[in-house]
Amino acid sequence: MSLTASPAPAPRPTYGAVLGSPYVTRLLAGTLTGRLPNGMAPVAIVLWATASGHGIAFGGLLSALYGLSSALAQPVKGRLMDRHGQTAVHLPAALINSALLVALPLTGPYGGAGLTTAIVVAGGLSTPPLEAGLRALWPSVLPDPRLRHAALALDTGTQGLLYIVGPLLVAALASTHSPTTALAVTAVLGMAGTATVALAPPARRWRPAPPAQEPAPETPRLASPALVLLFASLVGIGFAIGAMNVWAVSMAEQHRQEMLSGILPAAFSTGSFLGGLLYGRRHWNSTTTSRLVTAAAAFVAGWLPLLFLPGPYAATVAVAVPGAFLTVVVACAYVTTDTLAPAARTSEAYAWLILSIGVGQSAGTALSGRLAGQALASAVLPSAGATFALAVLLAARRRLVPPQQPTSSPRPSPFPPPPIGDPPCPTHQQSRS
């Protein structure tokens, strides 16, 4: 009979432990503050355009151009971060973006629609890539994969707060002062948050891991069938989100309750926030791929009650369900991207992931806008986008499992291997520091 005691199970990670780790609170708070313009600028631009006599149609076009140009520029800025570091990209981008937002009201007396459009597009192109940058920083800030797993879920879940707090803050500033003031505050918050992150020691020290030793010194290829399929599935996720936003407006018009256009997206974002909190606290034994597919299936099921055309109260409760699983899908998609992308190009890979969701969201908004007058068609579109995402993930399931690293030339890892029994989701390539 052996008297050797069995090892005690690893304690469950807590958000207190995550936030108590060096630099985590600063990086997370700075990123959320620096990204508030993502939720504020589109609304502030519309309000400024209408107040300046441009009309709501032109304001909506400017808002869409800002969001689209911001998404399209993500891979380029991610590639620049992988080459030159985060601080060298974040600070110039934030300075340009803030200056353009402050300068936008000056186009009224000194320029026409062409100059206004150019400033808005340039402002979108210059948004700092804080989201991709933070995901690349987690391995160096949190070497413990369990804490990193919780941090990723917390980071992903709190994104929904940007689209609750941001529009409300703009509306308050515009009503009590002016849309010009709202644009100025948006610029200040973006600059302050970005500086908080970019000047933090982890961001200043961060460099991508060098690529594995290969015969040719060429930059490793980013595109692979697995990543392409993963990003294609995320287009469907974004499509569902974009269609949901327009469906919320349709519900508000149908039931003559204007607040529904804000309440329904807020309920969806609240579900995402709570889902992220719950997901990050669990100790998962399943693989990342299985969790990704399972969460995508639940995301599809969450949209099905909309097909029964529920009333306002039931709809508000219903949209929180797919929101809760959105965080799991996105968090596991980031982990999968990390395991499949070349070590020297992780920031660029994260940026392509963000772009995929953004493109899908734009497509969902555009198509749902054309069908907004048809109640059933508008309610079907979110589940259609989610179903497309699930179908692609099921077809790509085998490809999404990361290949075994060859024993002859393993990737360098600055962190010790995790203890046996840690969840597979966060035990991804720990060489990305």
TrEMBL record:
First and last residue of the signal peptide: none
Disordered as annotated region, ranges: 402-433
The species this protein was found in: Streptomyces parvulus
SUPFAM superfamilies: MFS general substrate transporter (SSF103473)
Protein name per the record: MFS transporter
Pfam families registered for this protein in UniProt: MFS_1 (PF07690)
Membrane-crossing segments per the record: 45-68, 89-107, 180-201, 222-247, 259-280, 292-309, 315-337, 349-369, 375-396
Keywords: Membrane, Transmembrane, Transmembrane helix
Lineage: superkingdom: Bacteria
